[in-house]
Amino acid sequence: MKVLLGLVFIISAVLKLLEIDHFELYIYSFHFFSLNFSFLVARAVIISELVLGIGLIANYLHKFMWWGSVAMLLGYSMVLLVAIAYGRTDSCHCFGDFLQLNAKQSLIKNAVLLVLFFFIYNMEEWETPFRWLLLSLSIIVSTSGVFLISPPDNYSDYSSEHHLQVELFNEMLDEPPLDKLNLREGKQIVCFFSSGCEYCQLAARKISLMQRFNRFHAGRITYVFMGSREGIAKFYKESESDRYRTLLFKDMSSLMKVVNGDFPVVVLLQDGEVVREYGFRNMDEDEIKEFMAS
């Protein structure tokens, strides 16, 4: 039973890591932490699960691992209760996207695991030599592995990415259909998405959460899509983004040239001048918040 519980923690950690972009946004969606800090919290959760899983299977430092596991399950359950109180029915990503459980289902799963943990409370641990050294090695290997496999977006080299062809974009602003959107007036956020792009959906979710938490003027956000009307409807549903001013750009070849064939691209405009551009990985909440607030 103890090995089984350890495997549950390890499998949960690995599946979260494989879909960490979704897990980060789930954490951020509660607005307990900033976007940047949510990146670190997501990895701290994964590392903790890996260490606890390894410790349970290895059967050393039994009480330490037992209390750590129970505390983690109780912490998860408190977050799930908040989600239920908010009426949320989306996946909690406790097993990544492999197993879709909503908050109520995941709370039941946690209750079952807690019951199983009480059955192993009085187990005798093995007299493992150098057990604190083994624990330290588990922490070091798990931490380095997680950060090597998936470095946090805003703590890596993504900030130097540039995709927008500025001259072509400036020409596009004065041509149909963008010329009627008054994008040269004041501060604007213009997002270029492909309706079938997963990372575009995640970027839209980021923008939507930032706007909601920081109270940006929703009328200053424009989504420019490559795709179809049906694809856009599906995009909004799957991304869980709020709806903003939406434009379907039919000249796909021109749009591909402007974004250099790469989606998503998010552009900050002030009086028609490009102030900053982002891809999915290097979107900076503090910069966008300061730009829209000043």
Give average pLDDT, whole number. 90
Radius of gyration: 23 Å
The biggest beta sheet reads: 5 strands, mixed
Query: How many DSSP E strands?
Result: 6
Shape: elongated
Number of domains: 2
Percentage of residues in helical conformation: 55-70%
| Spatial ordering of strands, largest sheet | 4-3-2-5-6
Structural class by sheet pairing and helices: alpha/beta
**Number of continuous helical runs:** 11
Give unreliable regions as ranges: none
Q: Beta fraction of the residues?
A: 5-15%
Our measurement of the CA-to-CA distance between the termini, rounded to an integer number of angstroms, reads 57 Å
* Topology pattern, helix = H, strand = E: HHHHEHHHEHEHEHEEH
Task: Provide keyphrases for this structure.
12% strand; 11 helices; 2 domains; alpha/beta; Glutaredoxin; 294 residues; five-stranded mixed sheet
Describe the protein.
By secondary structure, the chain is α/β, with parallel strands linked by helices. The chain folds into 2 domains: 154 residues, no CATH class; 136 residues, 3-Layer(aba) Sandwich (Glutaredoxin). The chain is 55% helix and 12% strand. Strands 4-3-2-5-6 form a 5-stranded mixed beta sheet, with helices on one face. β5 and β6 form a beta hairpin. The radius of gyration is 23 Å and the shape is elongated. 33% of the residues are buried.
